Amino acid sequence: MSEIKRGLEGVVVDETKVSKVMPEINSLVYRGYPVQDLADNYTFEEVAYLLWKGELPSESELRDFQELEKEHRKLSPELQACLKLFPKNAHPMDAVRTGVSLLGLEDPTATDHSPEANFLKSVKLMAKIPAIVASYARLRKGKEPLKARKDISFSQNFFHMYFGEVPDAKIVKAFDASMILYAEHGFNASTFTSRVVTSTTSDLYSAITAAIGALKGPLHGGANEEVMHTLKEVGTKENASAWLEKALKEKRKIMGFGHRVYKKGDSRAPTMNKYGLQLAEITGNRKWHDISEVLEKEMIAKKNIYPNLDFPAGPVYHLMDFETDMFTPFFVMSRITGWTAHCMEQIANNRLIRPLCLYTGQGERAVPKK
After folding, report:
1. Which among 169, 170, 173 has a CA at the least distance from the CA of 281?
2. What fold, for 223-319?
3. How many C-beta neighbours within 10 Å does residue 307 have?
4. Coil, helix or strand for 256?
5. Of 266, 310, 318, 342, which is the active-site residue?
6. Which of these is catalytic: 259, 289, 318, 342?
7. Which of 28, 327, 320 is nearest to 180 (CA)?
């Protein structure tokens, strides 16, 4: 008899040096560094370098890496023309997924699996995906896309391409911290998807396109969008307790709570919540933070279930004036670093990922004669 582990829960299928959730310190670490410390003290560019190269960059390495990323921010005229043909009412994740597929179509080195080629492709994806996201966001509102700037940071440039201006440094830092916190998380559904595709020796763009498809689901990346929909449904902090009690009685899934890996709470959530509170103070809008605070306390008290990163991230992006259905594409902009780190790790010591399944259908039987 085979023991079935639905959802592969508890199954160890491979090894990685990229990240780990360490229960003894209740923290996620990237290459050994606690992610909350990285979020507070480093930039997304530095953390991307860490995930890909294994160590934090020196000043000269960072400078060279930043210049390389900036050089690849621009989209080709052909891709820009394709973006204008996308339906305005499509989900932005569909636009990002298709945009990445088009990047693969343009790249003559797509099937080159060498470490040097995959590293450059990873940098290109990091640089160009924000341009796809921002351009589609503007096009669907009838606005022209804006050209990328090369004189500002990754996160500053994204705000520029999205809104046409760069906000207060504290707002940029909050966004940059969210990019770091979302960048990597072990063998989650989308990362595992990317490794499965990579294990077939398919190209990196195919692996990332598949990963985006996995991330779109509300049980994975789409949860940050659902959190904001929930908070809007609750409406006020005075209504939060009654709303939660009714939702629990109806056995509704409360998005933004619980995690298969964390049992004592997602170590990333307090850091994101800290930046969320700063944003609430900057904007003078504590409404969403106050509702969240009530829901968090009540969920812990009633169900002993803690919030995950998506719970504070949703209102953070909302306070930055981003549309709710754009939240998951931001996850892509961040997680592209973790995905590609895992793809490079997979191809370096590859074995085709091909699990078994337990057949429970009909036994052998004769085919009826016509």
Report:
1. 170
2. Cytochrome p450-Terp; domain 2 (1.10.230)
3. 26
4. coil
5. 310
6. 259
7. 28
Output the pLDDT for position 265: 82
pTM above 0.90, yes or no: yes
**What fold, for 39-166+184-216+326-348?**
Citrate Synthase; domain 1 (1.10.580)
List CB contacts of 90: < 8 A, sequence separation 6 or more: none
Could you tell me where in the chain the CATH 1.10.580.10 domains are found? Answer: 39-166+184-216+326-348
Averaged over successive runs of 10 residues, the pLDDT of the chain (370 residues) comes to: 79 93 85 96 98 98 98 98 97 97 97 97 98 98 97 98 97 98 95 98 98 92 91 96 96 88 84 96 95 96 93 96 96 98 97 91 95
Residues 31/14, Cβ–Cβ less than 8 Å: no
pLDDT at 261: 76
Is residue 113 annotated as part of the catalytic site, yes or no? no
**d(Cα 316, Cα 333) in Å, to the nearest integer?**
16
Which residues belong to CATH 1.10.230.10 in the chain? 223-319
pLDDT of residue 1: 53
203 counts as catalytic: no
pLDDT given at position 201: 97
305: exposed, middle or buried (C-beta count within 10 Å: 0-12, 13-18, 19+)?
middle
Sheet holding 19-22, edge to edge: 19-22, 27-30, 33-34
